[in-house]
Design a protein that fits this description.
Strand content: 25-35%
Distance between the termini: 35 Å
Oligomer: single chain
Structural class: mainly beta
Mean pLDDT: 83
Helix content: under 10%
Low-confidence stretches: none
Number of strands: 14
């Protein structure tokens, strides 16, 4: 029987097979030993085979656990797995303002949408049925949105927000976070141009919303651009992915004496009214209009927040204040590369 899996689950299975295939080719003196400090840095099993630098030391996959057997589940799309590439199911939709409608919150744009309707009845002699279902489509404010979360390192704190010549050492992956202290985070959003075939969205978006698991305090914003290339996925050679290769910042919004975030030319950000667990910003102009070829816009939003448990995702959206509907488009943060400055590929802590 074929099994339906989400993109996240499929990528996990594919990565397990990638790790096993790499392990099989390693000479005996290069294979990891479990519960051992393989690289002599004082930590054990902190950088397993996953094609990324987990501990920020510039090395990749140098210290992990011993792999004893191949994964039990195949990742062949034509085999037991089906519907590969779907996002996780969204939260259940509830009526909005008394109407049986709600904004779709799953990552988009997408080519397909899948709907699941749960029906229940308290009367065993009566059943419910769906008589009508309508989906309204809106042109994308960005043809691609990628999100990536990082912690600001000690070097990044010392560099300061106004210094635009940032380096990878200014950030670390959001792992092993101390729950007893507030942390300084950077949320990166990489945005492609809007749909060029639809004049109603040619100006892109000028608002960003980040929903945090707990109260978040905005501390600064950097704006810039990032050069991108399209390459074959390491997990699935038939799938193309976008990689960020060169980031450059050219504008910063820092707090003034009144606590308002302003750029050097005096332009101010507007912090929209929202809950304490959200950061909602309106920028004075579009963030992703008129981009050069092979270039995406990059927004770095710095904020302070405290985390008490792992596995929580920071969800983000973009919106245009110029459209009547004000539809939010969700940022995709599942195994995405927003900037080469960060190597987390996630918005989870």
């Amino acid at each position: 029987e074929r099994e339906e899996v989400t993109e996240d689950i499929y990528n996990k299975i594919a990565l397990e097979w990638t790790a096993w295939n790499i392990w099989e080719t390693l000479p005996a003196n290069k294979k990891h030993a479990s519960d051992t400090d393989d690289d002599g840095d004082g930590f054990e099993d902190e950088d397993p085979i996953d094609l990324i630098d987990n501990d920020g030391d510039g090395l990749i996959d140098e210290d992990g656990r011993k792999l004893r057997r191949a994964p039990r589940k195949s990742f062949d799309k034509s085999g037991e797995l089906a519907f590969v590439g779907w996002s996780e199911w969204s939260e259940s939709y509830l009526p909005t303002n008394g109407l049986n409608e709600a904004t779709i919150t799953s990552p988009n744009p997408r080519k397909f949408v899948q709907i699941r309707v749960n029906i229940s009845s308290e009367d065993p002699f009566k059943t419910a049925r769906v008589s009508n279902l309508r989906i309204e489509l809106a042109p994308p404010l960005a043809l691609e949105l990628a999100g990536e979360l990082a912690l600001i390192s000690e070097e990044g704190t010392q560099r300061g927000l106004a210094d635009l010549s940032v380096l990878p050492m200014d950030y670390t992956p959001p792992r092993e976070i101390n729950p007893l202290e507030p942390q300084q985070f950077s949320y990166f959003i990489r945005a492609a141009e809007p749909d060029p075939t639809d004049a109603t969205v040619r100006d892109g978006f000028n608002e960003v919303l980040i929903v945090a698991p707990r109260a978040a305090r905005l501390t600064g914003v950097r704006l810039g651009q990032v050069e991108v290339v399209e390459v074959s996925s390491l997990l699935d050679p038939d799938q193309a992915v976008t990689n960020a290769v060169a980031t450059s910042f050219d504008r910063v919004f820092a707090p003034d004496t009144d606590g308002i975030l302003r750029s050097e030319d005096g332009a101010a950000l507007t912090q929209m009214a929202t809950g304490a667990d959200s950061v909602w910003i309106r920028f004075p102009s579009s963030l992703n209009a008129d981009l050069p070829a092979d270039t995406h816009a990059l927004i770095e939003i710095q904020f302070e927040s405290q985390i008490f448990r792992e596995g929580i995702e920071y969800v983000s959206y973009v919106r245009s204040s110029d459209t009547e509907e004000g539809v939010f488009q969700r940022v995709d943060a599942n195994s995405k590369d927003a900037t080469e400055l960060v190597d987390s590929s996630t918005a989870r802590v």
